Amino acid sequence: MNNSKLQAFCLLVELKKLAPVAKALGITAPTVSFHIRSIEEEYGIHLFRTNAGGYRLTEAGEGVYHFARQMVQLQKDMDRFIENLLAGHIGSLRLGASGLPAHIFMPDLIHQVSTTYPEIRISLEVKTAPEIEKKVALQELDFGLIMETKQENPLLHYETIGEDALVLAFSPSHELAAQKDITKEDILKYKLLLHTSSSSTNHFIEKWMDPFQPSIYTIELDSVSTIKKMLTFGKNLAFLSVSLIEEELKSGVLLKKDLHDVTLNRKIQLIYPKTRLDHKMDEFVKMSVYEIAKQLKMSSTMT
After folding, report:
1. Pair (73, 118) in one structural domain
2. What's the rounded Cα separation, in Å, for the pair 168 and 177?
3. Within this chain, do residues 248 and 275 fall inside the same structural domain, yes or no?
4. What is the tens place of the pLDDT at every residue in 3-32?
5. Number of domains into which the chain is organized
6. How far apart are CA 99 and CA 107, in angstroms?
7. What is the percent of the chain with per-residue pLDDT over 90, rounded to a whole number?
8. 8 Å CB contact between 122 and 95
9. The domain spanning residue 138 has which CATH number?
10. In this structure, are 196 and 224 located in the same domain?
């Protein structure tokens, strides 16, 4: 399959109009249409439904787009590899992380890689764990550090590098602050603050809350900073990693309660594509991640 046709197809999915696709590729709108018809004729399928709102994928088109996007990205990766090779550059490293790993791993990891490979171009994306998994699987990112999602992608390698336990966090002025033993029933009398519905953290919170109805007791927020600020008002509770509230605990702004519940324990995972061609820098990245985990004492198996 011609890569130019796949590029035109993928851009039409994303832009939904012929004109901007033609402009982006430096070709004419009829040429874009020709590329789409060529793919359809080759496979005997219809890729799009057209309407006043632009191009919309058929069921067959959805499947083709899934693979076409990966093929286009692989071509870009190969082109970038050849470009760097011919220019004498070491290359680039595209990292991704969900909230907690980004906070506790990425500063040290980026420092170590940039010190050892000073010419390398490093980028970091911080998104939810499912989003990072998707981008690594599509090879839009080279490595990801995530909290486990319980739904492993068959295109990826998963290596457990540590564990983290969620603790109950609240203000010293909260009604539960003076209570020695806190039960699930006590907690569910108050609103729980959650960090977005797509966060892997919520998988564990909802599992812990079962058989209660989570939506009744939760407020979803898109920022850990906002959650911590709202906790200081003394009305709400949240389950957070100790690593995210270290400063607040030291200053006494927040308190924590470890419930010693195994369902609140989470794996921290290093992920990368199974098809990735390993080289010297890749081994350095993996080694550095494990060394950082050991220094942080995130797992008893790493001592």
Report:
1. no
2. 11
3. no
4. 899 999 999 999 988 999 999 999 999 999
5. 3
6. 13
7. 52
8. yes
9. 3.40.190.10
10. yes
Higher confidence at residue 78 or residue 302?
78
CA dist 77 and 100 (Å) reads 28
Asked if the model's pLDDT at residue 94 lies above 90, the reply is yes
Are residues 190 and 212 located together in one domain of the fold?
yes
Per the CB < 8 A criterion, the answer to whether 68 and 9 are in contact is: yes
Do residues 109 and 170 both lie within one domain?
A: no
pLDDT digits (tens, 9 = 90+) for 173-219: 999 999 988 988 888 889 888 877 556 677 677 777 765 555 557 88
Shared domain for 147 and 287, answered yes or no, is yes
Q: Token pair for residue 59?
A: 């069921």
Distance CA 229, CA 126 (A): 21
Residues 69 and 106 occupy one common structural domain: no
Q: What Cα–Cα distance (Å) separates residue 82 from each residue in 54, 114, 219, 247, 285?
A: 36, 22, 49, 46, 22
Residue by residue, DSSP assigns the chain as --HHHHHHHHHHHHH-SHHHHHHHHTS-HHHHHHHHHHHHHHHT---EEEETTEEEE-HHHHHHHHHHHHHHHHHHHHHHHHHHHHHT---EEEEEE-HHHHHHTHHHHHHHHHHHSTT-EEEEEE--HHHHHHHHHTTSSSEEEEE--S---TTEEEEEEEEEEEEEEE-TTSGGGG-SS--HHHHTTSPEEEE-TTSHHHHHHHHHHTTS-HHHHEEEES-HHHHHHHHTTTS-EEEEEGGGSHHHHHHTS-EEE----GGGEEEEEEEEETT----HHHHHHHHHHHHHHHHHT--GGG-
Structural domain harbouring 273:
87-162+268-302
